[in-house]
Amino acid sequence: MRTYRLAGFWTRFLAYMIDILTIVSISGIILRGYAKEIPFLGISMVSIGIIGFIYFTVMTKLLGQTLGKMIMGIKVVRIDNKELDWITLVYREGIGRFISQLLGLHLGYIWCGFSPRKQTWHDSISDTYVVFIDELTCKHMIEVQE
């Protein structure tokens, strides 16, 4: 058994914003040659969704975290502390995020701020948590003389 410190709403929000910027940038690079042929709210949004699903799923499977989570010092873990598997991640990142983002309201994400275990809807249905990698330690503290 291992003890983790749960990541809260604002830490996760900042990580998510970094990830969204990353996904949009990757999509821009991939779709660069097709920009004149693809309407922004049509195929390009679908492409961003597909690239986002692949990004979140593969990064979380391989590293336990995305670029945003790396920067914020957080990662995804299963409730039973076993290794993240493809089925859990496809369920979390596909069905779970779809439910969390339902109708573009992102209520499943906002729920993290009210959940006692700091879980979004996609965490709850996939039995995962987002936790800090390092416990609180004194390694970032300094002593200042008075």
TrEMBL record:
The keyword Transmembrane helix applies. It comes from the Bacteria. The chain crosses the membrane at residues 12-34, 40-63. InterPro entries: Pra-immunoreactive, RDD. Residues 6-126 form the RDD domain. It is a multi-pass membrane protein. It is found in: Cell membrane. Keywords: Cell membrane, Membrane, Transmembrane, Transmembrane helix. GO terms for cellular component: plasma membrane. Its main location: membrane. This is RDD domain-containing protein. It comes from Gottschalkia acidurici (strain ATCC 7906 / DSM 604 / BCRC 14475 / CIP 104303 / KCTC 5404 / NCIMB 10678 / 9a).
